[in-house]
Amino acid sequence: MKDEIITHLHDPSQLERLYRANKAPFKRDFMTMYPSLKGNALADFWHERLTYETDEINWGNSRELWFVLMAVLVAGIIAKFPALFSIDEEFFYPRNIGFTVFPLLTAFFAWKNNLSTGKIALLTGLTLAGVIFINSLPNVQTSDTLLLSCLHLLLFLWSILGFAFVGGPQNDVEKRIGYLKFNGDLVVMTTLILISGGLMTGITLGLFGLIGFNIEEFYFKNVVVFGLPAAPILGTYLIQTNPALVGKVSPVIARIFSPLVLVMLVIYLVAIIYSGKDPYNDREFLIMFNALLIGVMAIIFFSIAESSKATKSRVEIWVLVLLSLVTILVNGIALSAILFRISEWGITPNRAAVLGSNVLILINLLLVTAQLIRALSKKGNIAGVGKAIALYLPVYCLWAIIVTFLFPLFFGFK
Question: Which of 211, 241, 271 is the last residue before a domain boundary?
Answer without folding.
Answer: 241
